[in-house]
C-alpha cells in the first residue's frame, strides 16, 4: 500500500462524507490540526458535490477568484463567468478607458465571441477571503445558531462570505462579522449608536444574524415561493438555502421584485441559476454573486480541510 498521508486523509474525508450523506441530520465534522493543537467544528459541504453545484461555471469562477491574489485579474464572460484568460492588475489599470475597450474587443475577436459579448475584468480576492482564519470562529457561530433553532449552515456560509476574519464597514454601512445594517441590528436587539456598536461583538452579531434569518429571511422565502407558484420546498434543500441567502443580502422586496419577472414559476437549481443571470431594480451584480461566492467559499473550505488538517471525523452520525 503506497498511498500518501494526504491521500489517506482524503479517502477518510470522503468515507465520512458518504456516511453523512445517508443521514437527514446536519453533518458537522471535527477537524484537528497540529499547528494550533485544537479541534474546530465545520459543516460538511459535500451536498454541493452530490447536487453538482461545484460543476457550474459561476462556482468555478468565484473559487478561482477567492484563491487568486489581487495582483492578477481574470478576464471572464459576464453572462456565465467563464474564464478566458488572465492579465496583471497593474497592466489593466494603467490603460486608458479607450485602451481597455480595444483590449476587450481583441479578446472577443480572438475567442470568436459574439461582438455584443460583455466581458468583466475581475481582480483576485484571496487577500479578502481569508478562509483559513474564519475556521476557528465557525464553531462558536454554529452553537449560537443551534441554540436559536436556526440551521447552522447559514452561520458558516455567511461568515465565509462577509468580511471573513475582518471587521470592516461595507459601502452601504453594514458592519461586523455578519455584516448587519444599523437599522436591522437595532430591530434584532443590538445597541448601535455613536457610542456603542454591538455589531462588532461576535456572539451578539451571530445571534442577531440568526434572528434575522429566523424572523424575516426564511419566512419571506417561503412566502415568496408560495405566492409565486404554490411551491413548498424542503427547507433543508440547498437551493432554498441559497434563496434565503439572497434575501439576507438583498432584502425580500428586491428578491421578490426580481422573481416577479419570471415567465413561469421555476424552482431548484434552475431558479438560482436564473437569479445569477438576471437583474431587476436593486437586485444587481453584487446580489447575483452572493450565493455564487457562498458556494465557492465552501468549496475552498473543503479543500483546506482535506489538505491541511491531520484528522477529520464526523461526530454527529
Q: Main traits of this protein?
A:
317 residues; mainly alpha; 3-stranded antiparallel beta sheet; 13 helices; 6 strands; 10% strand; globular; disordered C terminus
What's the short story on this structure?
The protein has 317 residues and is mainly alpha-helical.
Q: How would you characterize this protein structure?
A:
With 317 residues, the protein is mostly helical. It is 52% helix and 10% strand. The protein is globular, with a radius of gyration of 20 Å.
Topology:
Blueprint: H1 5-21, E1 28-33, E2 38-43, H2 47-50, H3 57-66, E3 72-77, E4 83-88, H4 89-93, H5 97-110, E5 119-123, H6 131-147, H7 152-161, H8 182-187, H9 202-229, H10 238-250, H11 252-259, H12 269-276, H13 285-308, E6 311-314
Antiparallel strand pairs: 1-2, 1-6, 3-4, 3-5
Amino acid at each position: 500500500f503506497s498511498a500518501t498521508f494526504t491521500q489517506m486523509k482524503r479517502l477518510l474525508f470522503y468515507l465520512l462524507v458518504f456516511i453523512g450523506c445517508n443521514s437527514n441530520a446536519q453533518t458537522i465534522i471535527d477537524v484537528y490540526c497540529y499547528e494550533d493543537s485544537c479541534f474546530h467544528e465545520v459543516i460538511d459541504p459535500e451536498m454541493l458535490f452530490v447536487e453538482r453545484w461545484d460543476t457550474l461555471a459561476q462556482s468555478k469562477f468565484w473559487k478561482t477568484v477567492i484563491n487568486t491574489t489581487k495582483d492578477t485579474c481574470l478576464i471572464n464572460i459576464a453572462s456565465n463567468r467563464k474564464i478566458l484568460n488572465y492579465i496583471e492588475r497593474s497592466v489593466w489599470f494603467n490603460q486608458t478607458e479607450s485602451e481597455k475597450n480595444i483590449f476587450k474587443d481583441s479578446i472577443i475577436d480572438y475567442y470568436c465571441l459574439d461582438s455584443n459579448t460583455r466581458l468583466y475584468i475581475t481582480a483576485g480576492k484571496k487577500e479578502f477571503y481569508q478562509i483559513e482564519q474564519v475556521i476557528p470562529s465557525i464553531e462558536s457561530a454554529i452553537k449560537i445558531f443551534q441554540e436559536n433553532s436556526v440551521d447552522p449552515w447559514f452561520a458558516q456560509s455567511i461568515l465565509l462570505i462577509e468580511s471573513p476574519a475582518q471587521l470592516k464597514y461595507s459601502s452601504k454601512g453594514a458592519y461586523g462579522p455578519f455584516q448587519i445594517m444599523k437599522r436591522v441590528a437595532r430591530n434584532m436587539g443590538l445597541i448601535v449608536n455613536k457610542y456603542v456598536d454591538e455589531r462588532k461583538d461576535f456572539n451578539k452579531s451571530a445571534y442577531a444574524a440568526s434572528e434575522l434569518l429566523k424572523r424575516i429571511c426564511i419566512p419571506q422565502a417561503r412566502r415568496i415561493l408560495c405566492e409565486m407558484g404554490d411551491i413548498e420546498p424542503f427547507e433543508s434543500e440547498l437551493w432554498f438555502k441559497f434563496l434565503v441567502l439572497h434575501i439576507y443580502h438583498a432584502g425580500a422586496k428586491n428578491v421578490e421584485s426580481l422573481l416577479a419577472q419570471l415567465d413561469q414559476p421555476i424552482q431548484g437549481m434552475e431558479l438560482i441559476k436564473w437569479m445569477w443571470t438576471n437583474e431587476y431594480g436593486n437586485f444587481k451584480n453584487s446580489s447575483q454573486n452572493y450565493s455564487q461566492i457562498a458556494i465557492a467559499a465552501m468549496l475552498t473550505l473543503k479543500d483546506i480541510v482535506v489538505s491541511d488538517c491531520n484528522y477529520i471525523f464526523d461526530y454527529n452520525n
